[in-house]
Input
Amino acid sequence: MPQTEDIAPSYPIPRAAGCPLDPPPLLGELRERRAVSRVTLWDGRTAWLVSRHEEVRQALRDPRLSADVRHPSYPFFSQGQVATRTMLESFLRMDPPEHDRHRRMLTAEFRAARVEAMRPGVQKTVDRLLDEMVAAGPPADFVTAFALPLPSLVICRLLGVPYADHGFFQRCSAVAFDRESTAEEIRASREELTDYLARLVASKAERPTDDLISRLVVDQEATGNLTRRQVVNLGLLLLVAGHETTANMTALSVLSLLRHPGQLALLRGRPELIPGAVEELLRLHSVAHNGLPRVAVEDVEIGGTTIPAGDPVLLSLTAANHDPRAYDDPGRLDVQRTARAHVAFGFGVHQCIGQPLARLELRVALATVLRRLPQLRLVDESLGNLGFRHSMTVFGLHNLPVAW
Output
């Protein structure tokens, strides 16, 4: 009989029943056995899983590990993703220098100073959403009342997308991010979103306004730096990623703080700790819980294991952020922990370009919620009664009933 460590478990690895907030125990076991393990993908192929903090950071810096979605060995998480691979093409799934050229077009939009100038608008949005939630009275679903509309409103304002259409693009992105969606469902949802963005970009080309999509059309498409399709793909990427990740991090952060009253009281008494607490919460939850796909384009040695050229690779951000070699007692929420070396936003050249905006939204949201709702509490303390996004590419909550 083969030893457990010789078996390549199916990936993504499910979380343990009853502990949906914790990483899968098997993921931790694999990390403790070795830095690089074999796992089995949905289609029967095997891939290399990198799970230790130092080795994941090393891999994210290594140009021999390609992020190019067009590579024939690219490790997809479902048949639906394979069927719609051409729709997944964006600078996130390109390699330098192509990646760098596209990324530079957006760098100015997400510089720290420019994002900080958005703080008054973000604060106003946070206050308005809380006003509306409080006026409606408890109980409330924190996800639909606050966590989801906040980043949706912010990214719509930045891109120049009408917020009135938010229900449409949230529905489409939910299908596209679900590993259980069929190829037909994913293709249909992505085509709907692409057609929507194409019409919006066309209108911006005719009548540019003060928003990011208009600037891409005027500064990049009109000068020949981008095609119309590339502008649409960039807009689609920013629209979807700009609300999915932050919405789920906001809801998970509030849930975690409500379940740790000592940490919650510490933040209420010392709001200056909130920026560091946001980093700790990002580390703890690592909402890109399936990890980052790569392909070795040359032989690569990581953690004493040689990964042959052409093999698919998965970099587990969750396992890395819970590595006891990097963080003492990594499963514990500690808002005073120094967690800035986490890889929740990735690392290296592909590190999330929108992280300054995500940090701003999370900091303003948590500070304001804790100040304005001192009696905020969970309607039901049982995690089993909450709807967790287990099958989604971005982990989080479908709902979070609260009262105050």
